[in-house]
Specification:
Number of strands: 4
Order of helices and strands: HHEHEHHHHHHEE
Radius of gyration: 21 Å
């Protein structure tokens, strides 16, 4: 998952939607994976938009469409609304973001405290968080999924070695050291061992 601010790139690369489409094509071509993309005025709306047409969708929400985009969505789609908050809202008869929008800032703050102010903004499509371009690397990983189930043997050993070399190279490029190493294996029945 990544968030990109392409506001300053449109002169060079075209509209945001065109940039998103080009990124999707490049990811498919270079990595062989599909991805879903949400193009929107802020992170909150982009996240919801990207989840709407998985695994290979592109959803665009324009500034003047943000309230109509949100109106029918369940309150559970909002950041900060977990199961407890969702249950509380549903007990109040508020099931959709549009219904939640009927409450005033005062009412939401009175019910939810600081979270109420955040809910007030999000249900109106307002999210002023900036996109941070570089964060401290906490982990480096590499994985692969085989097209068919395989048994232990040369292919598995070679793949593990290739993945290890890739991770080591990335550690070296970022001048980092590993404190721990983790191996994850998923079997045909989707049982996972770490």
């Amino acid at each position: 998952e990544a968030f990109l601010d392409v506001g300053g790139c449109q002169t060079l690369f075209g509209k945001s939607e065109d940039i998103a489409r080009a990124i999707k094509i490049r990811i498919k071509k270079e990595i062989g994976l599909t991805c879903s993309v949400g193009v929107a005025p802020n992170k909150f709306l982009a996240k919801i938009a990207s989840e709407m047409r998985k695994p290979d969708g592109l959803v665009v929400v324009k500034e003047d469409e943000k309230e109509s985009f949100l109106v029918g969505l369940p309150v559970s789609k909002m950041w900060g609304v977990g199961k407890v908050t969702e249950r509380k809202l549903q007990q109040m008869g508020l099931h959709t973001i549009g219904e939640l929008r009927r409450l005033s800032l005062f009412q939401l703050k009175n019910i939810f405290g600081k979270l109420g102010a955040r809910i007030y903004q999000l249900c109106r499509g307002i999210d002023d968080r900036v996109i941070i371009s570089k964060r401290e690397t906490k982990s480096i990983s590499s994985e692969t999924t085989f097209l068919h189930d395989i048994s232990p043997g040369e292919l598995l050993e070679r793949t593990l070695q290739d993945l290890s070399v890739e991770v080591a190279s990335r550690l070296n490029n970022e001048n980092l050291w590993a404190r721990s190493i983790q191996l994850k294996i998923r079997f045909a029945d989707f049982k996972t061992i770490t």
